[in-house]
Amino acid sequence: MQEFREKTISKNGINFHFVPTQKFKTIAITAKFRAPLSRETITRRALIPHVLQQGTQTYPDRVALQQKLDSLYGALLSMNGTKKGNYHITTIRLETANQKFISNEASIMDEAIALFKEVILNPKSENGSFPEATVTREKATLKQKIKAVADDKMRLANMRLLDEMCSEEQYKLHVQGYEEDLETITPDNLYSCYQSMVQNDTLDIYISGDIDPDTIESKITGSFVRRETETSIPKEESASPKNEPKTVIDKQDVQQAKLHLGYRTNITYGDKDYFALHVFNGLLGGFPSSKLFINVREKNSLAYYAASRFESHKGLLFVFSGIAPEDYQQAREIIVQQVEAMKNGDFTEGELNDTKELVINQMLETTDNAKGIIELMYQQEVGGKELPFNQLTDGIKKVSKEDVIKVAEKLELDTVYLMTRGDKNE
Amino acid sequence: MNKHSYEHIEEMIYKEKLPNGLSVYLLPRPQMAKIYGLFTTDYGSIDQTFTPINGKERITVPEGVAHFLEHKMFEKENRDVFADFSNQGASANAYTSFTKTAYLFASTDHTMENIETLLDFVQDPYFTDQSVEKEKGIIAQEIEMYNDQPDWRALTGTLKAMFHHHPVRIDIPGTVDSINTITKDDLYTCYNTFYHPENMTLFIAGNFDVKQIMKMIEENQASKHFPKVEKIDRSYPQEPDSVFEKDKTIKMPVSIPKCTIGIKESSSELTGEDFLKKDLLQDMIADFYFSKGGPFYQQLYEAQLIDASFYFDTNLEKNFGFTLIGGNTSEPENFAAKVRELLETTKRTEFTDEEVDRMKKKKVGQLLRSMNSLEYIATKFTHYNLAGVDFLKAVPFIQSLTRDDFNTFVQNWIKNDRIAVSKLVNE
């Protein structure tokens, strides 16, 4: 395997990361804007990517912009918003074919950089604001998107779990925004929010693919210039401790019930237990060989899916399962038992080693994915700690059984959420 | 071992057809960290009626058998195959489509063991009455999960509206009732007929030593015994060109209605260049009109008939094909009427050179991008290979298409009786 090296420079208030790799036939430019999560801005920040994709000063509408992208060999422009810990992150990404695979093409890269800059810095605007018609139309688009969450039961269940579990924390905020906030958005205040994002957010730009960092460095750093900014750090917050896990039951018109459990890990990215948390999650529910899959699904035929996943920056772990409504108590007991079994060290050295290998395998696989590499690197920025890939995998290799048991002991069940069959108004 | 090199995209493939009939393809990518292995049988949910191996008469098996079989391949007498892969640091999975069942793993270590495990578990079935019964609860939950998904219901509903008899209209996992009738014997009959090496393809891509791997595969296969086989006799009902139902309404609890337009693209057998040409043109032309910024997209967008969930998708398989256009819409009637009206106008289209050039460039770029993924190359190569097409030659093929090819296709694309509308509304 080819090793990947990252070259980082901070210039003009921006962190530029160059990631040369011959794994891909494309080149991707990714900008990540980061700011503390807040109810004030979340819906606006959800709307901005929609508006930015409707045109720029040079390509004044969606048709002109898309035709430019298409003629750049189907360049893919994508934008989205996500949460990591107490941050909101807006990602803007442009991926184009590497010109070396296309005969008689030498300008794709330069044009792509120019277009990327144009999309971010020169959106279509009128008198220092977004065009009113575009904002109105895109508000309607976002409104539908917010409503549609109700039709994706797995996502809805995750969202409801967070509403209840993190009711006093910013992390509960819905990344797609709130319907009621849409009414307060005007072209002017949306434009201010956009300007603040571009000028004040912490900004990381990644360029990855078969590139020569030295050639590309001057091209990209010369294109993006802004004043130095201070990284805004989210306010420290802590949830009020619960003596007992809270149980929340919602009734919906569904065939399959969703049983989702929220735990506090009390471990985040920079912590020394972070490596063991990866292994703990792998043993509990990260893989088809994990306890949850084997016991909830294979041994008891209760579910089609039963898995766990953790959040690195906030210190949360979730268990998900889709079950028949009548199996709720039994499934809940079995899930809770699996966590207890972890505390009791009920896993062999062999299982521990296999899981470590699986976790590392999964990370290595991520490096074969153009977006995955960037996500692995960006974790370090958000976590505020340098943790190069080799250190991460070495850390995992060193995890012992005692380390995993310690993670299990730190784990606290916070909220049990069940969405089950029944009349909504019952 | 045949070596095939594709210089324009810097790829190389090694091919071999083994004495037992298995087709093996190796695509080395030393820059990658991982290996991806895909073992595919040319057998999916549409292969419901056939003459079993060593049988005399055609039989029809219950809906959902191919998918059920896929689930049961992972369970052996004394162990679970997921655990075998886990012990070797690999992640494994499988899927069943209309036309294929595929087993796969990805790993970054223990290459030889993982390929052997893949071959051995798929070639060693173990079904008992008890294990078949146990699986019914799991698959029933899978079916219930899909039934709660409006997108799934819209898709399957549209297929049922488009096709009169073709088994593509049957849900891949079957129904809760149909899977309850499945027996161990059904599984063995289907397994023995369709999992013969002659009907299967092994594709390995990633970071490995070609010679060593090919030798291991040859030895592994030579050590197993398979009966001689004739070509499998499969039967598909006669399918008219027209759609079954032009207008259909599905009711389920949903916050925003959905509307899907299905264009029945094909119901006859296509292979080789004809297949590839139709496949690419149908995709590029649907993309031209319906991708963001396309002329039809733009009209639907301005009329506020679509939102971010809008999508289009084209499919072509050996004996059926369809295009879907749909999404969430608060006005399903108006959406359907507008799409029908827009499609009607394509008959008079004359593409300009510039438009054709842009479509070709976009498709070439999309293909190069998709080739970043070993999973994608393995899946697409296998898919096209079964239709007699070399996927890695698609880029020069696209570049060779002419404006006439595009115009001929688009002017004959739309026939009113080949369009079905399916609406999904709140009950």
From TrEMBL, chain A:
| Residues making up the signal peptide according to the UniProt record | none
Could you give a GO molecular-function term held by this entry? Answer: metal ion binding
The record's listing under Pfam families reads:
Peptidase_M16_C
InterPro entries the UniProt entry points to: Metalloenz_LuxS/M16, MPP/UQCRC_Complex, Peptidase_M16_C
Its domain of life reads Bacteria
- Gene3D superfamilies assigned: Metalloenzyme, LuxS/M16 peptidase-like
Ranges for region Disordered: 227-250
What are the Peptidase M16 C-terminal domain coordinates in residue numbering? Answer: 184-357
Q: NCBIfam families annotated for this entry? A: YfmF_fam (NF047422)
Designated name of the protein: Predicted Zn-dependent peptidase
> What species is given as this protein's source?
Lentibacillus persicus
Read off the lineage from the record. Answer: Bacteria, Bacillati, Bacillota, Bacilli, Bacillales
TrEMBL record, chain B:
Which InterPro entries does the UniProt record give?
Metalloenz_LuxS/M16, MPP/UQCRC_Complex, Pept_M16_N, Peptidase_M16_C
The GO terms this record gives for MF are:
metal ion binding
Q: What is this protein called?
A: Predicted Zn-dependent peptidase
Q: Where is the Peptidase M16 N-terminal domain?
A: 63-171
Query: Do you know which Pfam families this protein is assigned to?
Result: Peptidase_M16, Peptidase_M16_C
- Highest taxon in the source lineage: Bacteria
Q: Where is the Peptidase M16 C-terminal domain?
A: 181-362
